[in-house]
Write the structure tokens for this entry.
Amino acid sequence: MPSDEVNGTAGGPGARPILGTPDDFEERPAGPGRFLAYLIIGAIVAIIAGGWGYVMVAARGNPEVRAEVIAFDASAPTSAQITFSVHKPADREATCRLRAVDTQHIEVGSREIDVPRGKSDLAFTERLKTSAQATAVHVQYCNLV
């Protein structure tokens, strides 16, 4: 094709890469400039990562209260029973919300309980009244007071 020969893409003797070859560019000067640029970029990344870590901890990314369900019994049509443990700082009180749901994950019962100060690890067995047959019971949240 005539247009290929004009643009130099036909592979003829005058064909050269559009951006040039490595021999067309001069060598980079050796010096501390590159190291300094990498050092600045690394410092910026470290500051951003530290800031993000602070935001996650401040937004309860590292919770101070943990609750774990040990067992539950939802066999009764008007109530459900749950056994769970709470881990919290010993010198603080907490409030936990228990929730019973049916097969469609609709809440059929709930209850808030107070966790007293004095011990850091406590176990509870609580009964919730339900408006319908529950299929699962869980601790929705625990917060320090």
